[in-house]
Amino acid sequence: MQIKWLEDFVALAKSPSLVHAAHERNVTHPAFGRRIRALESWAGVPLIERGPNGIALTAAGRTLLASASEVLDILRETHKTLQLPGYERLHKVRFAAGRTLSHSVLPRLLTRLRGVAPAFQSQVTTTSLQYGIEMLMDEEVDFLLCHTHESLPGKADSKDYMHLVVGRDKLVAVSAPLSTRHPRYRVPRTAADTAVPFLDFASSMSLGLILRSRLYTICTADKLNVVYESDLSEAIRAMVLEGAGLAWLPLSLVRGDLEQGNMARADSTATDIDMDICLYRSRHNPKPIVRSIWTGLQ
Length: 298
Known about the structure:
Layout: H1 3-13, H2 18-24, H3 29-43, E1 48-51, E2 54-57, H4 59-91, E3 92-97, H5 101-104, H6 106-114, E4 121-126, H7 129-137, E5 143-148, E6 161-175, E7 177-179, E8 182-183, E9 196-201, H8 206-218, E10 224-230, H9 233-241, E11 247-250, H10 251-260, E12 264-265, E13 273-282, H11 288-297
Parallel strand pairs: 3-4, 3-5, 9-10
Antiparallel strand pairs: 1-2, 5-13, 6-11, 6-12, 6-13, 7-8
Helix pairs in contact: 1-2, 1-3, 1-4, 2-3
Domain HTH lysR-type: 1-58
Protein name: HTH lysR-type domain-containing protein
Family: Belongs to the LysR transcriptional regulatory family.
């Protein structure tokens, strides 16, 4: 038994004649006929019969056709499965990204990348900056997308890693609106200002480290009464929308809320904290697709 005999037989079942089926299979008519007879010899019974209207399958032929089609489908799927690991090694691109950036910035970045690089399959893991750096160093991901600021530790800022600035962002003070464009809570600037409820980042968050590095220079921090803390910017955003307090959040996350009037700035742009959005990769990553993406971005 040879697989090509089954492929011939399936082609014959779909064709009006032996000549047509031989042409479809790209073999001569005599050679095709010999292969069908070899299959009949293996089966031990006639599989086709000739009549005035051409060829037709016998009952045994129809039974074999069903099995042959199923076997060929299984083999094709098995072959695809066996090839998948090799394809993934060449074409799967693994990203680690902060939870906020994974949906506020990364989708647009991926669209941009697909315009400058060959086709690839993206796999995204959302994580904190600390674990994202460790994943990059342990070669568990190909790229790390993160906010960067002078206050953050630069473990990935070494000769073994490269980075590109792919965007700009800023932490902005926001509050639910009291009325159009006027915040319910304002950033306290003097000791005489009233204390306000403060929605803070968890200490493990890089955004929290960035904010705390500037907090005492942009406001009277003692007047910030922490009433809520989370390691998820989206959760803090939800609390701001509920009117629970004042927060600094990435502009990339709340731009739409500000434009639609669902939030208001809680101070002037003087208290904004500028940040870069950077994409990191190892200099030693061997994947051609990673190099193609990097070249396209440059």
